[in-house]
Structure formats: structure tokens, C-alpha cells
Amino acid sequence: MFLEQIMTSLGLSDLQFALAVIGLGILILVALLNLRYAHVRKKAKAQNALEKRFAPGFADISSTQNETEAEQVQAPVIMSSEKAAIDPRIDCVISLRFDEPISGQEILKEMEDWQDIPGPSGVQWMCEGLNVNVDEVETWEPIQSDAVYSELQLAIQLASRRGPIGVLELSDFCSRVQLLAETLGSQIDMPTVSAMLESAEELDRMAAESDIQLSINVAFDEPCSWKDLAIILRQRGFHLSRNGRSYEFGGPEAGLFKSAELDSNQSVKQFTLLLEFPLVPESSRAFERMLAEGVAVAQIAHGRLVDDNGMNLSEAAVTSIRQHLDVLYIKLDKSGIPAGSSTAIRLFS
Prior knowledge:
This protein is of the alpha+beta class. Helix content is 42%, strand content 22%. The longest helix is centred in the first third of the chain and has 35 residues, at 14-48.
């Protein structure tokens, strides 16, 4: 009855009242996130007064450093250990613009506690600044304490093999960037959260359609010992992986394909080669090379190529795979994320 009186006095329909309640709930959620971040930030700063803590890639920028120490510290990089650049094709990008250039040291100081960003491992965020050094051409780069910047780009990856970014992770990141903009006195250019979530869902759908793993199976007429197979593979240019349970094949820069895991204590009845299509460029002709190695191993170890059902692999099946690959390569090229590119490796990891 009380709600009906409020609705009547305000002249609201049921739908309008429901939308108003939802809007109020969103505002309360954003406010709570901001309060939580402010509390965490205050706590981190208090603790830093006694003990400096830095995320991987952050260098000590304490004002008590002398010049000799500062020269010995490597340039800090605000990103994960993987060296990658912000890419609007897979990242949510938020821009901060300063009326007057600001030092990298001040920026880093305000971001000391950003290692506390919640969310599943693999949620990758980065920060780049537009260097305005008069002796150099303006360039985007990871933030360095001894440089000066006129603009920042902060980004968080929208999707990976784990799926699209969640609303809580994205909202927390946006709240942090908004607070940073207020602290540094900068203008901010940020898409809406709903638009970013839609982009994440769309990117995830595209990635799911292209995330293909191809296999070539070699079935041996008689089980092959691990030792004999290892000798064959080494002679063919394979090398044992770090886990010691599979073999990898690749050029000087990156691996092209690998074997399924094997048990060194048992004879091998079937040997399988695996190719993750989005991670290798079309120019590498990885599938053709994997097929050739499968044929070679089969000939040397008295085996035959079979499909996943154990049937002999036919030329028609191989032709079909080639045609399907051509379509996938074209699709990724049109999306602006060609197979084997650094952006594709980030997206399909």
C-alpha cells in the first residue's frame, strides 16, 4: 500500500517505478565499489609508510631514493610479465588527458596498490603514457618514473579463453580509473560499462568460433617404445617439452605444434600431434608441416595416419581440413586479429 501511494503521488507507472528502483540499485553498487577501493587504497598507503610493496613490473619510486639508486632501478612497466601493447580490438581502453604534462613518478605513486585488482588470474590490465620529451617524437610507452606524459591509456582485456570479463571486474577497474582521473586532475574518456560488456560478449563469441585445435594421429601396427619414439622425434627436430611428457616442434622463434602427452613408462599405441590454429600464422604452413611429420613418423615406426575414430585418414579428409583452415584464416584476418599475431596470442591464451 505504501509503495502504491508513492507511485500515485509521483505519477509513475509500474514499469517506470521498476526502472527507477533498478537505476537506484546500480548507483548504490557503484558507490559501494568506490568506497571499497578508497578503503583499500588508504590501507595500502598506510602500510607503505612502513614497508614498500610493489606489483611485478613496478620499481621503487620512493622520494627518499638518491640519484645513484634511481639510476640502478630498471624502468617500471605497468603490465603483466608478458610484454604486450594496448590493443582496442581486444581491450577496453580508457583515456586520461592532462592540461599540463605530469611525471611518471607521480602517476606510479598513485597506482602503487593496483596489484590488488580483484578477479580471476588472467585478467590483464595495462597502462601506457604519451611521452612528451622534447628530444624525442611523442610515443606511447609503459610508464617510466623519469619521463613526462600528456596523456594516459589504461586498458583491461575484455576476453580470453576463460571467457568474457565479468561485470564486477570491469566495474572495479573503471572505478579505479575514475578515482585516478580525479586524483591526477585529468579529463577522462570512458565508454559505458554496458557497451564494454557487449563488446566483451561479441569478442568472446568470435574467439569461440575460431578457437580450433587440429590433430594428426599416428596409430602403430605394434606398440612403439617411448625410447624408440623419442629417438625418432629428436631426429625429426622435435624437442622434449618442459613438463617432460610431450614433444614440441617449431622454428627458431616459436613452436608450431606439439604432441599429446605420453607416458614414458608405457609403450605408445597411438601418437597424436596437435596444432592450435589461432596461435600460428598462416605463412608458417603449420598444418602442412604437421601432416608431413605425421607421415614421416608413420613410415619410420610402421604406423598409419588415422582420424579421431581410428579410421584411416583419407585424402578427401585432408582436403576438407585445408579448406576449413583457409576459411578460418580469412575470418580472423577480417576481424583484424590475424592468426599468430601478438593480439591473437593474448586473446587465445
